[in-house]
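dumping this here before i forget
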Amino acid sequence: MLRDSYNRGQKVAVDVLSKYAGGPGSGVKEHNTAPIDFPQSKHVSIGTRKALLDNMYYRKEVVPLSSITAVGQKNLIPEKLKRMVDDPNFKDVLKEKTVDLLRVGEDDYHVIDGHHRVLAAAMLGVNELSAKVRRKSKRTMKTNDRK
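structure:
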């Protein structure tokens, strides 16, 4: 499901190359981002990411890409995604740099942090990712359900 959805993302990344895109805090605005065409998580949002990442309890796991069913970020930076996909060493980077996921079901993970890496991995045909997996808890659900 993720790979099929993000094969369309390749076109977005190529079409928006002329737009400038920076990292967090760089003043990225709507004019240099593109929407992520994938289900939005009801458990993860930009406003709740910090609380989820501050949760000390995580377990390192290798997660099948097919089990990632939702994202917590509405937009992506096409230039950043293209740089990752074009980097010949990117698959090695994925082995070292984990993504952060929230496990909300048996084989149901939502992206907390690492959206661009997850999308690039899908575009490159990667089948599984190293991840720091946090579990849904009553405390995190109360925080997320307030929105």
